[in-house]
Protein backbone atom coordinates (compact mmCIF):
# COMPACT_ATOMS: atom_id res chain seq x y z
CA UNK A 1 0.00 0.00 0.00
CA UNK A 2 1.36 3.38 -1.00
CA UNK A 3 1.56 6.31 1.42
CA UNK A 4 1.37 9.81 0.00
CA UNK A 5 3.48 12.66 1.35
CA UNK A 6 5.95 10.47 3.20
CA UNK A 7 8.81 11.95 5.23
CA UNK A 8 11.61 9.37 5.08
CA UNK A 9 14.32 9.49 7.71
CA UNK A 10 17.68 10.76 6.50
CA UNK A 11 19.46 7.65 7.87
CA UNK A 12 17.10 5.05 6.33
CA UNK A 13 18.67 2.87 3.61
CA UNK A 14 16.11 2.78 0.81
CA UNK A 15 15.52 2.62 -2.93
CA UNK A 16 14.86 6.03 -4.51
CA UNK A 17 12.80 6.27 -7.70
CA UNK A 18 13.12 9.87 -8.87
CA UNK A 19 10.65 10.41 -11.73
CA UNK A 20 10.62 13.35 -14.13
CA UNK A 21 7.94 13.05 -16.81
CA UNK A 22 8.66 9.66 -18.44
CA UNK A 23 12.30 9.57 -17.27
CA UNK A 24 13.92 8.06 -14.20
CA UNK A 25 17.02 9.28 -12.37
CA UNK A 26 19.82 6.68 -12.46
CA UNK A 27 23.16 6.90 -10.69
CA UNK A 28 26.52 6.97 -12.46
CA UNK A 29 26.46 3.16 -12.82
CA UNK A 30 23.07 3.26 -14.53
CA UNK A 31 21.23 1.83 -11.51
CA UNK A 32 18.37 3.00 -9.33
CA UNK A 33 19.91 4.93 -6.40
CA UNK A 34 20.10 3.03 -3.12
CA UNK A 35 21.32 4.30 0.23
CA UNK A 36 20.50 6.90 2.86
CA UNK A 37 19.69 10.52 2.09
CA UNK A 38 22.86 11.39 3.98
CA UNK A 39 24.88 9.40 1.43
CA UNK A 40 23.14 10.50 -1.77
CA UNK A 41 23.52 13.80 -3.65
CA UNK A 42 19.87 14.71 -3.38
CA UNK A 43 18.37 18.14 -2.68
CA UNK A 44 16.21 18.90 0.35
CA UNK A 45 13.14 16.70 -0.14
CA UNK A 46 10.84 19.02 1.80
CA UNK A 47 10.31 20.80 -1.52
CA UNK A 48 9.20 17.59 -3.28
CA UNK A 49 6.26 15.23 -3.11
CA UNK A 50 7.47 11.87 -1.80
CA UNK A 51 5.43 8.65 -1.93
CA UNK A 52 6.28 5.44 -0.10
CA UNK A 53 5.42 2.71 -2.64
CA UNK A 54 6.21 -0.46 -0.71
CA UNK A 55 9.27 -2.65 -0.25
CA UNK A 56 11.83 -4.36 -2.43
CA UNK A 57 14.37 -6.75 -0.94
CA UNK A 58 13.28 -5.79 2.57
CA UNK A 59 13.95 -2.09 1.99
CA UNK A 60 11.46 0.73 1.47
CA UNK A 61 10.91 2.15 -2.02
CA UNK A 62 10.20 5.87 -2.38
CA UNK A 63 8.92 7.83 -5.35
CA UNK A 64 10.23 11.39 -5.61
CA UNK A 65 8.30 13.56 -8.05
CA UNK A 66 10.88 15.81 -9.65
CA UNK A 67 10.60 18.77 -11.98
CA UNK A 68 11.37 18.27 -15.66
CA UNK A 69 14.98 17.03 -15.89
CA UNK A 70 15.55 18.48 -12.42
CA UNK A 71 19.17 19.67 -12.15
CA UNK A 72 19.04 19.54 -8.34
CA UNK A 73 19.72 15.80 -8.52
CA UNK A 74 23.41 15.13 -9.12
CA UNK A 75 25.59 12.05 -9.25
CA UNK A 76 23.73 10.58 -12.21
CA UNK A 77 21.29 11.49 -14.97
CA UNK A 78 17.68 11.06 -16.03
CA UNK A 79 17.13 8.25 -18.52
CA UNK A 80 14.16 6.59 -20.25
CA UNK A 81 12.48 3.94 -18.14
CA UNK A 82 13.13 1.32 -20.85
CA UNK A 83 16.82 1.49 -19.96
CA UNK A 84 16.02 -0.60 -16.87
CA UNK A 85 14.29 -3.31 -18.89
CA UNK A 86 16.46 -6.39 -18.43
CA UNK A 87 15.68 -10.00 -17.75
CA UNK A 88 18.29 -9.93 -14.98
CA UNK A 89 16.26 -7.61 -12.73
CA UNK A 90 12.60 -7.47 -13.69
CA UNK A 91 11.67 -6.71 -10.07
CA UNK A 92 13.46 -3.36 -10.25
CA UNK A 93 11.95 -2.54 -13.65
CA UNK A 94 8.45 -3.30 -12.38
CA UNK A 95 8.92 -1.10 -9.31
CA UNK A 96 10.25 1.68 -11.52
CA UNK A 97 7.19 1.26 -13.70
CA UNK A 98 4.99 1.53 -10.66
CA UNK A 99 6.74 4.77 -9.71
CA UNK A 100 6.16 6.18 -13.18
CA UNK A 101 2.46 5.25 -13.06
CA UNK A 102 2.00 6.77 -9.59
CA UNK A 103 3.69 9.96 -10.75
CA UNK A 104 1.51 10.14 -13.85
CA UNK A 105 -1.63 9.61 -11.76
CA UNK A 106 -0.79 12.32 -9.22
CA UNK A 107 0.18 14.84 -11.90
CA UNK A 108 -3.05 14.34 -13.84
CA UNK A 109 -5.46 14.30 -10.87
CA UNK A 110 -4.69 17.54 -9.08
CA UNK A 111 -8.18 18.80 -9.89
CA UNK A 112 -11.53 17.02 -9.93
CA UNK A 113 -12.66 15.95 -13.37
CA UNK A 114 -16.28 16.31 -12.29
CA UNK A 115 -16.45 19.78 -10.65
CA UNK A 116 -12.96 21.26 -11.03
CA UNK A 117 -12.17 21.54 -7.30
CA UNK A 118 -8.61 20.82 -6.15
CA UNK A 119 -8.41 17.20 -5.03
CA UNK A 120 -6.86 15.92 -1.81
CA UNK A 121 -4.94 12.70 -1.21
CA UNK A 122 -6.49 9.85 0.75
CA UNK A 123 -4.45 8.85 3.82
CA UNK A 124 -4.97 5.07 3.73
CA UNK A 125 -4.79 4.26 -0.01
CA UNK A 126 -3.40 5.62 -3.25
CA UNK A 127 -6.35 7.73 -4.31
CA UNK A 128 -7.36 11.35 -4.80
CA UNK A 129 -10.65 12.59 -3.36
CA UNK A 130 -12.78 15.64 -4.05
CA UNK A 131 -14.44 16.89 -0.87
CA UNK A 132 -16.73 19.15 -2.88
CA UNK A 133 -18.59 16.47 -4.90
CA UNK A 134 -17.16 13.29 -3.25
CA UNK A 135 -15.61 12.05 -6.50
CA UNK A 136 -12.69 9.66 -5.89
CA UNK A 137 -10.06 8.58 -8.42
CA UNK A 138 -7.55 5.72 -8.47
CA UNK A 139 -4.55 5.11 -10.73
CA UNK A 140 -5.67 4.18 -14.20
CA UNK A 141 -4.96 0.69 -15.54
CA UNK A 142 -5.61 0.12 -19.25
CA UNK A 143 -6.08 -3.56 -20.26
CA UNK A 144 -4.35 -4.61 -23.49
CA UNK A 145 -4.06 -7.86 -25.37
CA UNK A 146 -0.86 -8.99 -27.06
CA UNK A 147 -0.74 -12.13 -29.20
CA UNK A 148 1.80 -14.28 -31.01
CA UNK A 149 0.14 -15.83 -34.09
CA UNK A 150 1.62 -18.93 -35.68
CA UNK A 151 1.02 -20.29 -39.17
CA UNK A 152 2.78 -23.60 -39.64
CA UNK A 153 6.47 -22.95 -38.99
CA UNK A 154 6.11 -19.17 -39.27
CA UNK A 155 5.06 -16.35 -36.95
CA UNK A 156 3.37 -13.03 -37.75
CA UNK A 157 5.60 -10.06 -36.93
CA UNK A 158 5.02 -6.41 -37.69
CA UNK A 159 6.83 -3.11 -37.32
CA UNK A 160 4.77 -0.48 -35.51
CA UNK A 161 5.07 3.21 -36.24
CA UNK A 162 6.48 3.79 -32.75
CA UNK A 163 9.01 0.96 -32.90
CA UNK A 164 12.64 1.79 -33.45
CA UNK A 165 13.68 1.22 -37.04
CA UNK A 166 13.88 -2.46 -37.99
CA UNK A 167 12.32 -3.80 -34.78
CA UNK A 168 9.45 -6.23 -35.34
CA UNK A 169 7.03 -7.46 -32.70
CA UNK A 170 3.71 -9.24 -32.33
CA UNK A 171 0.28 -7.61 -32.52
CA UNK A 172 -1.22 -5.78 -29.56
CA UNK A 173 -4.09 -3.44 -28.80
CA UNK A 174 -6.32 -1.95 -26.13
CA UNK A 175 -9.46 -3.65 -24.90
CA UNK A 176 -12.53 -1.54 -25.64
CA UNK A 177 -15.48 -1.03 -23.29
CA UNK A 178 -17.81 -4.04 -23.27
CA UNK A 179 -15.30 -6.45 -24.83
CA UNK A 180 -13.91 -9.69 -23.46
CA UNK A 181 -10.18 -10.25 -23.89
CA UNK A 182 -10.84 -12.81 -26.61
CA UNK A 183 -13.15 -10.44 -28.50
CA UNK A 184 -10.57 -7.68 -28.30
CA UNK A 185 -7.88 -10.03 -29.61
CA UNK A 186 -9.95 -11.17 -32.58
CA UNK A 187 -10.94 -7.59 -33.44
CA UNK A 188 -7.41 -6.18 -33.18
CA UNK A 189 -5.93 -8.98 -35.30
CA UNK A 190 -8.55 -8.52 -38.00
CA UNK A 191 -8.22 -4.72 -37.98
CA UNK A 192 -4.43 -4.71 -38.10
CA UNK A 193 -3.71 -7.79 -40.22
CA UNK A 194 -6.99 -8.80 -41.93
CA UNK A 195 -6.89 -12.42 -40.76
CA UNK A 196 -8.90 -14.67 -38.46
CA UNK A 197 -7.36 -16.78 -35.68
CA UNK A 198 -8.21 -19.93 -33.75
CA UNK A 199 -6.96 -21.89 -30.72
CA UNK A 200 -6.57 -18.73 -28.63
CA UNK A 201 -4.65 -19.51 -25.44
CA UNK A 202 -3.84 -17.22 -22.52
CA UNK A 203 -0.33 -17.47 -21.01
CA UNK A 204 0.71 -14.55 -18.79
CA UNK A 205 0.40 -10.84 -18.06
CA UNK A 206 2.85 -7.99 -17.50
CA UNK A 207 2.36 -4.46 -16.16
CA UNK A 208 3.57 -2.14 -18.90
CA UNK A 209 4.09 1.37 -17.65
CA UNK A 210 3.99 3.23 -20.96
CA UNK A 211 2.16 4.86 -19.38
CA UNK A 212 -0.40 2.62 -17.59
CA UNK A 213 -1.11 -0.59 -19.51
CA UNK A 214 -1.60 -4.13 -18.27
CA UNK A 215 -0.56 -6.46 -21.09
CA UNK A 216 -2.34 -9.84 -21.22
CA UNK A 217 -0.47 -12.30 -23.40
CA UNK A 218 -1.88 -14.94 -25.72
CA UNK A 219 -0.83 -17.30 -28.46
CA UNK A 220 -3.09 -18.22 -31.36
CA UNK A 221 -3.02 -19.94 -34.74
CA UNK A 222 -3.92 -18.58 -38.16
CA UNK A 223 -7.39 -19.72 -39.23
CA UNK A 224 -8.02 -18.00 -42.58
CA UNK A 225 -7.48 -14.84 -44.59
CA UNK A 226 -4.67 -13.10 -46.44
CA UNK A 227 -2.52 -10.50 -44.74
CA UNK A 228 -3.66 -6.90 -45.18
CA UNK A 229 -1.51 -4.75 -42.91
CA UNK A 230 -3.22 -1.61 -41.58
CA UNK A 231 -1.04 1.33 -42.75
CA UNK A 232 -2.47 3.60 -40.05
CA UNK A 233 -1.06 1.40 -37.24
CA UNK A 234 1.82 -0.52 -38.81
CA UNK A 235 4.73 0.17 -41.15
CA UNK A 236 5.03 -3.38 -42.40
CA UNK A 237 4.25 -6.96 -41.40
CA UNK A 238 4.70 -10.50 -42.69
CA UNK A 239 5.09 -14.17 -41.80
CA UNK A 240 8.64 -15.02 -40.72
CA UNK A 241 10.27 -18.39 -40.26
CA UNK A 242 11.55 -19.03 -36.75
CA UNK A 243 15.00 -19.64 -38.21
CA UNK A 244 15.02 -16.26 -39.97
CA UNK A 245 13.56 -13.70 -37.57
CA UNK A 246 14.17 -9.94 -37.90
CA UNK A 247 15.19 -7.92 -34.81
CA UNK A 248 12.63 -8.67 -32.10
CA UNK A 249 11.97 -7.32 -28.57
CA UNK A 250 14.54 -8.17 -25.88
CA UNK A 251 14.23 -10.83 -23.21
CA UNK A 252 12.16 -9.65 -20.27
CA UNK A 253 9.38 -8.27 -22.44
CA UNK A 254 6.08 -10.09 -22.69
CA UNK A 255 6.37 -9.92 -26.48
CA UNK A 256 9.64 -11.86 -26.46
CA UNK A 257 8.23 -14.42 -24.02
CA UNK A 258 5.26 -15.06 -26.31
CA UNK A 259 7.47 -15.32 -29.39
CA UNK A 260 9.59 -17.93 -27.62
CA UNK A 261 6.50 -19.83 -26.46
CA UNK A 262 5.08 -19.81 -29.98
CA UNK A 263 8.33 -21.17 -31.35
CA UNK A 264 8.13 -24.13 -28.97
CA UNK A 265 4.65 -24.84 -30.25
Characterise this structure.
- The strands form 3 sheets. Strands 1, 2, 3, 4, 5 and 6 form a 6-stranded mixed sheet that branches. Strands 10, 11, 12, 13, 14 and 15 form a 6-stranded mixed sheet that branches. The protein has a 3-stranded antiparallel sheet with strand order 7-8-9, with no helix packed on it.
- The chain is globular and about 60 Å long.
- The two termini are 39 Å apart.
- The mean pLDDT is 92.
- It is built from 3 helices and 15 strands.
- The chain folds into 2 domains: 95 residues, Nucleoside Triphosphate Pyrophosphohydrolase, CATH 3.90.79.20; 123 residues, Nucleoside Triphosphate Pyrophosphohydrolase (Alpha-Beta Complex).
- By secondary structure, it is of the alpha+beta class.
